[in-house]
Amino acid sequence: MKATSPRIFETQDGSHSVFSEQHGVSYHSKYGAIQESQHVFLESGLYYKMTGRKSLAVLEIGLGTGLNAFMTLLESEKHGIQIDYTAVEAFPISLEEAEQLNYPALLESGEWQKQFLAIHQCEWNEPQRFSPHFTFTKLLRRFEELDFSETFDVIYFDAFAPGAQPELWEAPVMEIMYRSLQTGGVLTTYCAKGSVKRTLKSIGFEIEALPGPPGKREMTRAVKKNAVV
Predict the structure, then answer these.
(1) How far apart are CA 211 and CA 219, in angstroms?
(2) Is residue 61 in a domain?
(3) With contact defined as beta carbons under 8 Å apart, do 27 and 18 qualify?
(4) Which pLDDT tens digit goes with each residue over 178-221?
(5) Residue 8: inside a domain, yes or no?
(6) What pLDDT does residue 229 have?
């Protein structure tokens, strides 16, 4: 399907992204939405924790287009690993826009189109089983309003950039994320800004600067080494 929404545009790897008028930025890198998700969240986060595991709990900050959730669903089926996926979103895209996104086709997963749309169609705040290996829950609220306790193995921190949503990159929110992770849990983000890394480190994360996806020199992985006191 050809995208007709004026907010949807094609990134350099051929995959779609969406422009947010409210925040003045797009949901993905212009250099490639799928490439960015694969590199930052799957390869640097999910795969990092997946070895030898039969199950994982993943938290996504910023459901957005549903690309990260969809790619994680495909990985759960490919590797036969149980994934409980929770996504927080305060500004969801419309179902009409979701129907125009080309991710299932580009990922050669057209048979999963129904599940991709279910990410956007399903009820909020209610766990949904999308496959034998993948359970999905989406929460319609601001992340600042939530407080989990040592629940997750992986956090995909995919909020809009600090210039667009500065409140999500400050210590109070970082502390919530730290508490949300189990010991040994990992947070990944495309952002490599020095102030963000310093804030993460001050809270207790061990910081790794990793090579970034196309168009970015670096990205950040943060590991929770110690339990919450």
Answers:
(1) 6
(2) yes
(3) yes
(4) 999 999 999 999 999 999 999 999 999 999 999 999 999 999 99
(5) no
(6) 47
